[in-house]
Amino acid sequence: MSDFLVAEKPAREATRSADLVVAKRVIRAEIAGLESLAEALDGAFEAAVDTCSAVRGRIVVTGLGKSGHIARKIAATLASTGTPAQFVHPVEASHGDLGMIGSGDSILALSNSGETTEFADIVAYSRRCNIPLIAITAGARSTLAAAADVVLLLPEAAEACPMGLAPTTSTTMMVGLGDALALALLERKGFSSADFRRFHPGGRLGRKLLRVRDIMHREDDVPLVSPGTLMSEAILVMTAKSFGCVGVCAPDGRLVGVITDGDLRRHMGNSLLRHAVGAVMHEHPKTIAATALAADALGTMNRFAITSLFVIDETGRPIGFLHMHDCLRAGIA
Predict the structure, then answer these.
(1) Does the pLDDT at position 198 exceed 70?
(2) Are residues 57 and 158 in the same domain?
(3) Cα separation of 331 and 333, whole Å?
């Protein structure tokens, strides 16, 4: 091995070690900023939640540069958690996009310095049209803070950038404050997982939040017979429904048993077709509620090595049927 390669390995390791030192320093600096932010929260945050909660229209989030990117993220988080919101670029606002902001809206403006000159028109518009203005800024005496109805003040915290220039700690605090605002509104409104799924139908999270009722078979598709039914007829029902099983209901409608393909094999004989269903079925079939998560239903099937579940109501009566293939088609795995 050449002297060059021998020397190169320690150099690479030293570089990697230095990189880790930088990464840990940055993360710790941003954690310190978030801790300072949490300690600094006061009545202004409650006023901001009150203001946003009272909005009849949308929360219009605006910002420029890195703050603009954070503003887009906050708008998206608000919208996906039950608070209608949109991002409006402050420069585009000066060229016609002020028309996107209505009298029933509120404006959430992000600027670390609070002296972003491009905010002039959108701030003036908010004052002229009596539109509530919430500012997220570190500039307590800034122009933006002076104009705002509510000021969410970022505490003094050093940027993680060694030159103190690149927005790092400040933007992390903005993200944290935006998330806090969105989730405070979520809890105040009683926004549920079902509401969340309605806004996320195409994502993996939306699929995880599917309920059994969303994908189960209903009414005539559910394979059911009574205990006195002959097996010859029950097999015809099993074949017609093509689920490989049939449920057995008592006269009062409660599900009392199930017959599967496996039961047919175990009872195979010359007299099978002449038996009543009640003599062949096994009792206490595995069931699930319509309100249960489809993922939980799939977990039950896997746990008991079965391929289907009857869906019952609170009285024990079957109202649906769920097959493992229904879960897989819905993307639940």
Answers:
(1) no
(2) yes
(3) 6
